Model the fold of this input.
Amino acid sequence: FISNNSFLDQIAFDGMRKHLVHDFHRIYHLNLQGNVRQNPKLSGTAYNVFGIQVGVGITIAVRHSGVRSGIFCHAVPLDWRRHKKLDWLREQRDLRSVPWQELTPDTRHTWLVPEHASEFAGFVSIGQKKGKGVPADSVFDLFTNGVKTNRDDWMYDFSQDALAEKVERFIETYNTEVDRWKRRKDRDAKVDDFVTYDDRRIKWSRDLKLDLVRGNYAAFDDAKIRECLYRPFTKRRLFFDSILNEEIYSLERLFPAPTTDRDNSAICATAIGSEKPFMALLSNVVTDVHLVGAGCGSQCFPLFTYSSDAQHRRENITDWALTQFREHYQDLRITKTQIFHYVYALLHHPDYRARFADNLKRELPRIPFAPHFDAFADAGFRLARLHLDYEQLEPYPLEFFVNPGFSLSYRVEDKMRLAKDKRSLVVNPSLTLAGIPPDAFEYRLGNRSAPEWVIDQYQVTEAPRSGIRLDPNRPDDPEYIVRLLGQVIHVSLETLGIVRHLPAWQ
Done:
């Protein structure tokens, strides 16, 4: 069976792997690699046998009478291009010519068990889902996904006025549909067949249709327009609403009102099952669930949580964790805020990320006790200031070149273009920035570096289905995008400096 082979290691397919083993006596899987999303070094589709972006594999499942004999796997080298893979396949005559490795699944039906699974399991859990009234032995008491709108074009905008205008238009269409549903003559009508489908007026999703059936009206309120971290170092305005957003999870416990934003901060880390490399980024506003793009969810671990009326705040680091850290380091002066910063620094440690890369795809982070608590807590504090206050930093001193025949403009229309050597950037026909240091691209979040996220997000776009136009330029601050580039380069270089000087974590 030739297929997309994401079932080989993705957590969503634990059940499928369980049943494959139950139904067949021997299973052979030839992993032909080629997953561009998981491997940013594989540019384009030249490394994939079908020229697609997902991994491909050949599975041979054998059922026979007799003793079960296991699961066998072989992966071709990651850097092989399409033609080399095809040539190798031609050379193979039967199963015996392939150097199979026998796999031993764990109790969760993981076939490719991470190399350091037992070591990782011995660390402290960063967070656990717990039963009602049952405390968890973990660092954080509560954690939550980022906001999931299922209609980003409608619920996000760079401009507050533009966002308000289109949300009010969306609400008018939605509430009209609620009225129509209530007045329908056919009481057996199915909502999927009933509602109006017009991408320029509304975008339906499962939860929005459920709200329609329940007769829930939406209401516009300026107070629901919130600042949101949409992508790394990219803030947009969000209409934060439990009806018009598909899921807001527990984010109201983290950021209950605009007046409390920035009084709290949360470590937003790659969620389980991500297709992209592990990352962590601090935010003091609501974050999007796909903080580093599609195929990668995020989990937010806050320093504080609030009561439902936003009047009371409590620390979210558990008392159990505080006791563990104080006892391990024999230091009663350790605070919960220091533990928060310790965790943030540790999650940036390159050796920790490299050693447990496979574990972090299947589990939330687990936190070891590093030899030097104070050094990590101090580094985490400095990283926090950089990543939260990036818009207040002095920009890195880039060289500005006004192209001949043009008057200087800071406006960005089309996507900004990096030179092949990444030392210069064309902002628009009139302006080129030069003198970009190579290290600026070493600080990566997911599959992109920090400056590349700014380049990717800050361009004028128009959604083909809805016709909604997003313009990141600020009429009241025309230099914002260019200044932001300099600030994010500054952040990247400072972050690298802090991370490279972290002490050993074990």
Remarks:
- The radius of gyration is 25 Å.
- The CA atoms of residues 269 and 379 lie 18 Å apart.
- The chain is about 30% helix and 20% strand.
